[in-house]
Write a structure and sequence with these properties.
Shape: flat
Distance between the termini: 54 Å
Number of strands: 4
Strand content: 5-15%
Length: 190
């Protein structure tokens, strides 16, 4: 598109081609987000997350990766899907330092650079993988939040599980017709 003259018909055609490609990528990303978040919510009774400052991550050297992956949108999806499927969802505060706390004894060791992937606790001497330790800390923080009753208030709604009305599948979607029976298109009378 940058090689086309401003205001020309060829530039307009190139602009449409570029827009189609961007739309294709956005559709694929959105589809993956929906499938992955739905799978996570359906497979687990309780999902605990960490409230990360995505805008802050966008100012680091990881900015392109974070924004390309649509991380903020993906993190928001399990919240409303948990309500829809009647699951528990809790998110730890931004101030909770999951990678700085020892999951074995609870000692706070302090901030670590991103290249430090493994560290040893000064108090108990446990060797931690950074990501596994953070996951264990998020799990215990999520359980603590739910036990304290501060989980998302939407999960405690009286309408959980009642918000979606059941609609029978269309005849054409229910499989092949049996011998001697004809398939009927459309939704049968309710």
């Amino acid at each position: 598109m940058s090689r086309k003259a401003m205001g020309s018909k060829n530039r307009a055609k190139a602009r449409i081609k570029v827009a189609r490609q961007h739309a294709k990528v956005a559709d694929r990303r959105r589809d993956w987000h929906h499938k992955a978040s739905t799978r996570i919510i359906r497979d687990n009774q309780a999902v605990y997350g960490e409230d990360l400052a995505v805008s802050g991550l966008g100012r680091t050297r990881l900015a392109k990766s974070v924004h390309d992956a649509g991380w903020s949108k993906f993190v928001a999806m399990p919240e409303y899907k948990a309500v829809k499927h009647g699951r528990t969802f809790a998110k730890g505060a931004r101030t909770f330092r999951s990678s700085q706390i020892c999951s074995a004894c609870g000692f706070r060791d302090g901030p670590k650079l991103l290249h430090v992937r493994e560290w040893t606790c000064c108090e108990c001497g446990t060797v931690h993988d950074r990501d596994r330790n953070a996951a264990l800390n998020v799990l215990s923080e999520g359980r603590r939040i739910v036990a304290a009753g501060r989980a998302e208030t939407l999960n405690a709604s009286w309408s959980v599980g009642k918000t979606r009305t059941k609609v029978p599948a269309q005849r054409v979607e229910t499989g092949s017709p049996r011998k001697g029976h004809t398939a009927q298109a459309g939704i049968p009378a309710l």
